[in-house]
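Contributing new records

If you add data, match the layout below exactly. Sequence lines come first and carry their own label; structure lines follow with theirs. Keep one chain per record. Anything else will be rejected by the validation script.
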Amino acid sequence: MTSTLFESFMIFYLLEVIVLGVIAFQLLRDMKKETIEEEMRNNQESGGPSASDLIKMRALAKQMDRQK
């Protein structure tokens, strides 16, 4: 009787550890994915002037040349 109860407890304990381990793994993977996406967004934002900014600068440079 005691050994069956002990075995049941050990099986329950091992299943609980496995479930908690899977949950922790999923959370860590999601956190890592979010940080990678955030880094990618930051890199894209700080990549320099956009195409529309370059067009505006070119137009401004032409206008300044005309004024000379």
